Amino acid sequence: MNLLTLSDVTVRAGGSLILDRISLSIDPGEIVTIVGPNGSGKTTLMRTILGAMPVSGGTITTRPGLTIGYVPQKLPLDGSLPLTVARFLALPHRHSPKKIAGALKLAGLPDIGDRQLSALSGGQMQRALLARALLSEPDLLILDEPTTGLDQQGEAGFYRRIEMVRDKRGCAVLMVSHDLHVVMAASDRVICLNGHVCCHGTPASVASAPEYRALFGHGTGGALALYRHDHDHEHHGHSHSHD
Amino acid sequence: MIDGFLMRAGLGGLGLVLATAPLGCFVIWRRMAYFGDALSHAAILGVALALAVQAPIMAGVLVVALLFGLAVLRLMRAGDSADTSLGVLSHGALATGLVAVALLPNVRVDMEALLLGDILTVRWSDLVLIWGGGALVAGVLRWRWDRLLTASLGPDLARASGIDPDRESVILTVLLALTVALALKIVGALLVSALLILPAATARHLSRSPETMAIMALALGAAAVLGGLGLSYGLDTPAGPSIITVATALFALARVSRKAA
């Protein structure tokens, strides 16, 4: 059975149509990436799945007992809240030290439990967020543009880690990205969003779809071509991890 | 006899700090300082209403602050700019309240006591309410601590953990309204949010976890109340502002010593 099925989900906000009859489903263990330009409704779609947006049409069906682990793009933390990594991982539920150590290891974070969250680097913060999401033993891991602020190496490393997490835990992954080229390697399926689902399929088939090219190719054609070129080569060789 | 009213004042202040110190931490973490301000200003309108219908003042303040807070919460959820709408509502409520109090026939109200508090006239019956209310606020915060903390980290993060962040916001708003009602007599409408923010902001400089921050805020709030009353007694200065003055001095001290460290 699907973990999650959206059929004809429509979301309006402030009178305007944000999501137009979105249908998609996620199977156990698969990695699905949602790409789309700014304002295409990626974040709204993710928040709708989390239950944060009222749906004005269509239905969302989840498998009974579905546990979701959520990795936000960032925490709106300013310096006003003192919080160690260990305390953060224990919100809202406490876990055994053994379980926490396991999650930290899987997320690729060394033993920095007593470090303040606000003192972490961007990459460490992402892995701390990932470790916290893993502690709920999710069936579905939802990540919102998780590599924003990481450099290309860090991004590639993070995606390899997500793939490893999926292999070890068997959880499905739903990832929102504004960037196709790095995501593609790890994704089983890519859904290209622009208010509606404009195309979907394997990474390669989406990349060559005219709808995708119309969205991403326009205006950024040069940069995109360069990226793709990079990606073709990086796919095989590079495997050094990055901190 | 001097001891009697001073003791009641001290006890009243400490009972209030029981609510304001931990609640103030959430006000800071969630950047609700202006929200607290607006609620306490709306309290004046509650006073006018209570006087008009001859209800207990604390009840009038509680009802108006509660309605006001929930209305603002609704506006903010609907996407209105919090900053501007709070600014409008806050001063609107304060001014309307003051005008309404002045318009009431046959009622003479001590404006200064409303705005700055009158802690030295706290009675034993007030103390029961203040300590009961303070313990209630602290108890609810303790009960929902992890949920409130998670919701303060981000609404979507909370939702994914099975927590309804909107419900936690409502709970905080209710607690804030209750605290404002309790605080009116102690520090007055203008200084309620100072007692929320100052101890918590000072505690921030001395803590590494949210829990120690709340406990430090309690200690600092208590020190401000007792120190402020001492100052007020020694120099014959108004009690409410004296308490806040000491709290401000403690903040400056913590700030400077942290820089030096």
TrEMBL record, chain A:
InterPro entries: AAA+_ATPase, ABC_transporter-like_ATP-bd, ABC_transporter-like_CS, Metal_Ion_Import_ABC, P-loop_NTPase
Pfam families per the UniProt record, alphabetical: ABC_tran (PF00005)
Record flagged with keyword Translocase: yes
The ABC transporter domain, residue ranges: 4-219
Keyword Ion transport in annotation: yes
Keywords noted in UniProt: ATP-binding, Cell membrane, Ion transport, Membrane, Nucleotide-binding, Translocase, Transport, Zinc, Zinc transport
Tree of life domain: Bacteria
GO molecular function: ATP binding; ATP hydrolysis activity
GO biological process: response to zinc ion; zinc ion transport
PANTHER family for this protein: METAL TRANSPORT SYSTEM ATP-BINDING PROTEIN TM_0124-RELATED, ZINC IMPORT ATP-BINDING PROTEIN ZNUC
Protein's recorded name: Metal ABC transporter ATP-binding protein
Organism, as annotated: Palleronia caenipelagi
UniProtKB/TrEMBL annotation, chain B:
SUPFAM superfamilies: ABC transporter involved in vitamin B12 uptake, BtuC
Keywords: Cell membrane, Ion transport, Membrane, Transmembrane, Transmembrane helix, Transport, Zinc, Zinc transport
A GO biological process held by the record: zinc ion transport
Stored Pfam families: ABC-3 (PF00950)
Bilayer topology term: Multi-pass membrane protein
Keyword Ribonucleoprotein: no
Membrane-spanning parts: 6-29, 41-68, 88-107, 127-145, 170-201, 213-233
InterPro entries: ABC_BtuC-like (IPR037294), ABC_TroCD (IPR001626)
Subcellular location as annotated: Cell membrane
Top-level division of the source organism's lineage: Bacteria
Listed GO CC annotations: ATP-binding cassette (ABC) transporter complex
Protein's job: Involved in the high-affinity zinc uptake transport system.
Family statement: Belongs to the ABC-3 integral membrane protein family.
Protein name (record): High-affinity zinc uptake system membrane protein ZnuB
Source species of the chain: Palleronia caenipelagi
